[in-house]
Specification:
Structural class: mainly alpha
Radius of gyration: 22 Å
Number of helices: 18
Strand order of the largest sheet: 7-1-8
Distance between the termini: 48 Å
Largest sheet: 3 strands, parallel
Order of helices and strands: HHHEHHHEHHHEHHEEHEHEHHEHHH
Length: about 500
């Protein structure tokens, strides 16, 4: 009974980001001694704003993922997709096969409780951030538990041990706390003092992008403040730029696939996909309508971001001042998109070029056993975020070069770790369809998984105190302002 209630709590509250964030805003307003109806209003605006954000992000995924998958199917590619949801599905299926899917809830709760505890003892730990991106918390709990289980205990064929579950929870909670804390100051720069930090899949990557950006380019030449001459001046408009650029890049892929790839024939009847009908559109018109949706969904994303970030920033002051003094909320990376509308486009394009180069190298030069298929979420949300942080310190040159390098790392890192995670058992092999692919998961977590294969559980155990040294080093750099509430700086 208790286990069932706990599973309900994890899946229907902690795992639902809009509900969780709305509740946080509601409590924050009450702690600020606002009237109950003001708190309720904040809850509703936050919930609706995040739902708008989800509509936009889901639209981006549903529009462009089928094109990438169709490219794979058309050319009979047997590959693994570097996409968070493909990685999550792999983890769920593998853990379910081992009768251990319930352990994910334990990992998530331990990690979240550990994050809270580290913030409570912030004077000693120097941790200021509370990771509250619910769907990412669940996703990472699944993938990390699966990866560590398979390389440490998988050979036994037994369910996940409670020891590994506990260690994974503390390790993941440390990662949430330390890396979201690490990226606070750069996020403040990017958002002009937004009062929050990033709690997502590329926190370490965003910090690296920001730190390296100044060595790569000039921040004065921002991607968002470039005045193009003549015809190119239309690219100064974010909506126009997104629509045209995606028409060129995705449109080429669609032309290569051909119009028949977007029509399924079933029992003599046409199944229309994405509104395409030979009698309604020319194929060129269909390409335009499909790719123009990129600009539509980006606009939706920005609308949702502006709505819930305003509420979250204001209300979290109540939690920060009354419950977890000096704490900062760590939220979805998409909230930064409104502060650099052109950044995600740069990240997508140059990340795609980097991934394509790496994929071709794997397929035709190295002839690797694991062939990687690019995932849209990595291309856009991961590299887009890196481009925003790189642009802030190094301008458009950094926003091009760093996502390009990131794309290469995402492919090679994912292919390497997948070579350790694909079972030899034919029955289980088909359950692994991909890996997270995001920057931190192609570097930090890929390396942790591979080292754990050879050294054992000592690697994740040792990594916990090693990561906890990072905020101590941060604190030494600016002791006087370190615990100042970010929004007040």
């Amino acid at each position: 009974m208790v286990v069932e209630i706990f599973k309900e709590f994890v899946s229907k509250f902690l795992g639902q980001a809009p509900l969780m964030l709305g509740f946080v805003v509601f409590i924050g307003y009450l702690l600020l001694k606002k009237e109950w109806y003001v708190a309720l209003s904040g809850f509703i605006k936050t919930y609706v704003g995040f739902k708008i954000l989800q509509v936009g992000t889901s639209g981006l995924v549903s529009t462009f993922r089928p094109i990438i998958e169709k490219l794979s199917a058309t050319y009979n590619l047997s590959a693994k997709v570097i996409d968070p949801y493909f990685g999550q599905t792999s983890g769920e299926k593998m853990l379910e096969a081992m009768n251990s899917l319930t352990n994910v809830g334990y990992v998530m709760l331990i990690a979240f409780a550990w994050n809270i505890l580290l913030v409570i003892f912030r004077k000693q730990t120097k941790i200021r951030t509370l990771f509250i991106t619910g769907h990412i918390m669940y996703q990472q709990s699944v993938v990390l538990l699966w990866a560590l289980y398979w390389v440490i205990e998988g050979a036994t064929g037994q369910p996940v041990s409670m020891t590994l579950t506990i260690v994974t929870g503390f390790l993941l909670g440390t990662y949430w706390s330390v890396m979201s804390n690490l990226i606070i100051e750069p996020t403040q720069e990017v958002t002009n003092g937004g009062g929050f930090t990033i709690g997502h899949q590329q926190m370490m990557g965003a910090w690296i992008a920001y730190r390296l950006g100044k060595y790569v380019g000039n921040k004065k030449h921002s991607v968002d403040h470039t005045e193009a001459p003549g015809f190119f001046s239309i690219f100064n408009d974010n909506v126009v730029a997104n629509a045209l650029i995606m028409t060129v890049f995705v449109g080429i892929i669609m032309l290569i696939l051909g119009k028949n790839s977007f029509i399924e024939i079933k029992e003599g009847a046409e199944i229309i996909q994405k509104g395409y009908s030979p009698s309604k559109y020319w194929f060129g018109t269909y390409i335009w309508e499909t790719t123009a949706y990129f600009a539509v969904y980006i606009t939706i994303v920005l609308t949702g971001v502006r709505m819930f970030v305003a509420e979250l920033t204001t209300s979290f002051q109540g939690i920060s001042d009354k419950l977890l003094k000096g704490s900062v909320p760590a939220v979805d990376c998409a909230v930064t998109f409104g502060f650099s509308p052109q950044g995600p486009t740069y990240g997508f394009i140059f990340g795609f070029i980097g991934q394509l180069l790496a994929i071709l190298t794997l397929a035709f030069v190295i002839k690797a056993e694991v062939l990687i298929i690019a995932g849209f979420i990595c291309l856009f949300f991961d590299n887009g975020t890196l481009a925003i942080f790189a642009n802030k310190s190094g301008g458009r040159r950094a926003a091009m070069i760093i996502p390009f390098v990131s794309g290469i790392i995402q492919v090679f890192g994912s292919a390497f770790v997948l070579s350790y995670l694909i079972p030899s058992n034919e029955e289980l092999k088909g359950l692994v369809i991909g890996w997270m692919g995001m920057f931190d998961w192609a570097t930090l977590w890929a390396g942790t998984t591979i080292l754990s294969k050879w050294v054992g559980i000592v690697i994740p155990i040792v990594l916990i105190p090693v990561m906890l040294v990072i905020p101590q080093l941060q604190y030494k750099r600016h002791k006087e302002t370190y615990f100042t509430t970010m929004r007040d700086e």
